[in-house]
Design a protein that fits this description.
It holds the Pfam family Glyco_hydro_1. There is one protein chain. It contains 14 helices and 16 strands. About 35% of the residues lie in helices and about 15% in strands. It has an 8-stranded parallel beta barrel, surrounded by 5 helices. Strands 6-8 form a two-stranded parallel sheet. The protein has a two-stranded antiparallel sheet with strand order 9-10. The chain has a single domain, classed as Glycosidases (TIM Barrel, Alpha-Beta Barrel). Helix 2 packs parallel to helix 4, helix 6 packs parallel to helix 8 and helix 12 runs parallel beside helix 13. It is of the alpha/beta class. The two termini are about 25 Å apart.
Length: about 475
C-alpha cells in the first residue's frame, strides 16, 4: 500500500528553474534567439525587434558558466531531483534546422552529468516558454501545424541523446497559459487582440497533438521514460454561495481542466466541445490526431501552484484580482505577496485532491514558491545571507497542505520549489522578485558580481529534505 501518513520514501525533493531565466549566454556556442530574447519586460510586456541591453535574461545569472557551482549547492541541500528546461534554440538555433547544434547538446550532457554525479535526477521540460524566435517569425508559432514536425524532431534528438541520463520529462510548461500569453507560451507573434478563438484553439490543438506524439516517441526510445504534462493550476472559488457564482467558478476551472482531460483521458471534454459549438470554432483534426491523443496519455500530471482566484457571474461588481497572473476577482479572505499574488496554502491541498480524484494518476508539484524582495545582510560571523523567514513560512504552510493531501490518499511523486536559486522573473523580468534559497548578486539595473550566497531558507530546506518532510 502507498504510504499515507507522510511523503513516501522515494519522494523527489528538489528545485526548479527554466533555461531562459538562469542560463544567460544567449548568443554563445551557436545558440539561436528565442522569444525570451525579445521580451525584456516579461511575459505580457513589449516585444522588441531584437535583443536589447535592458533584457536581463540575456545574461540572467549565467548558469551557463556557473552550473557546476550551482548544482553543488543543490546537492548540499540534498536534492533528489532538479527540474530545468532545454533551450530549444540551443539544440536547433532556428527551430527548423536540418542538423542539431552539437555545442548545445554537449552543454546539457555536462549539466546532466553534473547532476548525476551527486545522485540528482534531472527533470527536463522540453518547451518552457522558449520557442525559437525564427519559428515565431516565419510560422507564427503553434498556429502552424508544421510546428508539430519541428517539435518531434527536436524531442527525438534530445530523447536519443539523453536516454541514459534523463528519466523524467515534461512536454510543454504551463500549456494552458497559451490562452493568456500566446507569444511567450506558444510563439504566436500575431497580437493577442488580433487572434481569433479559432486560431488560438487550433494552435492549442497542434500543441496537444505534439505532446501526445512526443510522449509516444519517448516511450519508444526508452520504455522507462516517465513523461508528464505541465499545467498552471489555479483553483477558482465562487465569490459567494449564489449558484450562478458557483457555476461561473466551475466554468472557469473547466477551461484549465480541458488541458489535463486531453492529456490524460485522450479526448476533448464535452464542456469544451460545447464552447466550440457555441462560438463557431471548428478544430481541424488531421488523420491520426484522435488516435494519438487517445493512445498516448501522459504518465503523470505536473503543475505549478502559486495562487487561487475567485469568480462571479457578474465580476464587474467586485474588485479585480489584478495582481494575480491570470486575473480573477479579489478574494477578501487571502493575504497577498508583494506582487499582489493571493497566498492560499489550502488551495494546494484542494488542487491535489481535485486532480487525483479526477484522473487517478501520479501528481508532481513542479513549481511553488514566493517571490519577494530579499535584503542581503552580513551575519554575526561576517557571512552574507538573507533572513527570509517569510519564505520558510510560505513553504512550510504549502508543504503541510501537500502532506495533508497525501494523507487524503493522493499519489504525490515529488516537489520542486520554483526558482531554487534566484533568477529573472518570468512575469516581470526582474531580479528583485526573488524566489531562491540561494541569493545571486545581480540587480534590476544589471549590476552585480553574480556571487552566490546561502539564504537562511537554504538550511531550512536542507532539513526538510533530510527528514523527508517530517521537519516542516
Amino acid at each position: 500500500m502507498r504510504k499515507q501518513n507522510g511523503f513516501k520514501d522515494d519522494f523527489l525533493w528538489g528545485g526548479a528553474v527554466a533555461a531562459n531565466q538562469v542560463e544567460g549566454a544567449y548568443d554563445v556556442d551557436g545558440k539561436g534567439l528565442s522569444v525570451q530574447d525579445v521580451t525584456p519586460d516579461g511575459a505580457m510586456g513589449r516585444i522588441t525587434e531584437g535583443p536589447t541591453e535592458d533584457n536581463l535574461k540575456l545574461k540572467a545569472i549565467d548558469f551557463y558558466h556557473h552550473y557546476k557551482e550551482d548544482i553543488a549547492l543543490f546537492a548540499e541541500m540534498g536534492y533528489k531531483v532538479f527540474r530545468t528546461s532545454i533551450a530549444w534554440s540551443r539544440i536547433f538555433p532556428n527551430g527548423d534546422d536540418e542538423e542539431p547544434n552539437e555545442a548545445g547538446l554537449q552543454f546539457y550532457d555536462n549539466v546532466f552529468d553534473e547532476c548525476l554525479k551527486y545522485g540528482i535526477e534531472p527533470l527536463v521540460t522540453l518547451s518552457h516558454y522558449e520557442t525559437p524566435l525564427h519559428l515565431a517569425e516565419k510560422y507564427d508559432g503553434w498556429k502552424d501545424r508544421r510546428m508539430i514536425g519541428f517539435f518531434e524532431k527536436y524531442a527525438r534528438t534530445v530523447f536519443n541523446r539523453y536516454k541514459d541520463k534523463v528519466k523524467y520529462w515534461l512536454t510543454f510548461n504551463e500549456i494552458n497559459s497559451v490562452l493568456h500569453m500566446p507569444f511567450i507560451s506558444g510563439g504566436i507573434k500575431t497580437p493577442k487582440e488580433d487572434l481569433s478563438d479559432q486560431e488560438l484553439y487550433q494552435a492549442v490543438h497542434h500543441e496537444l497533438v505534439a505532446s501526445a506524439s512526443v510522449t509516444k516517441i519517448a516511450h519508444e526510445i526508452n520504455p522507462e521514460f516517465q513523461v508528464g504534462c505541465m499545467v498552471l493550476a489555479m483553483p477558482t472559488y465562487p465569490i459567494s454561495s449564489n449558484p450562478e457564482d458557483v457555476l461561473a467558478a466551475k466554468e472557469a476551472e473547466n477551461t484549465n481542466y480541458a488541458f489535463t482531460d486531453i492529456h490524460v483521458r485522450g479526448e476533448y471534454p464535452g464542456h469544451l466541445l460545447r464552447f466550440f459549438a457555441e462560438n463557431g470554432i471548428d478544430i481541424q483534426f488531421e488523420k491520426g490526431d484522435a488516435e494519438l491523443l487517445k493512445n498516448h496519455p501522459v504518465d503523470f500530471i505536473s503543475f505549478s501552484y502559486y495562487m487561487s482566484v475567485a469568480a462571479a457571474a457578474h465580476p464587474e461588481e467586485y474588485s479585480s484580482g489584478a495582481g494575480n497572473v491570470i486575473g480573477g476577482i479579489e478574494n477578501p479572505h487571502l493575504e497577498k505577496s508583494e506582487w499582489g499574488w493571493a497566498i492560499d496554502p489550502v488551495g494546494l491541498r484542494i488542487v491535489l485532491n481535485d486532480f487525483y480524484d479526477r484522473y487517478r494518476v501520479p501528481l508532481f508539484i513542479v513549481e511553488n514558491g514566493l517571490g519577494a524582495k530579499d535584503q542581503l545582510i552580513q551575519d554575526e560571523n561576517g557571512q552574507y545571507t538573507v533572513e527570509d523567514d517569510y519564505r520558510m513560512d510560505y513553504m512550510q504552510q504549502h508543504l503541510a497542505q501537500a502532506k495533508e493531501a497525501v494523507k487524503d490518499g493522493v499519489d504525490l511523486m515529488g516537489y520542486t520549489s520554483w526558482g531554487c536559486i534566484d533568477l529573472v522573473s518570468a512575469s516581470t523580468a526582474q531580479m528583485s522578485k526573488r524566489y531562491g534559497f540561494i541569493y545571486v548578486d545581480r540587480n534590476d539595473d544589471g549590476s552585480g558580481s553574480l556571487n552566490r550566497y546561502k539564504k537562511k531558507s537554504f538550511d531550512w530546506y536542507k532539513k526538510v529534505i533530510e527528514t523527508n518532510g517530517e521537519n516542516l
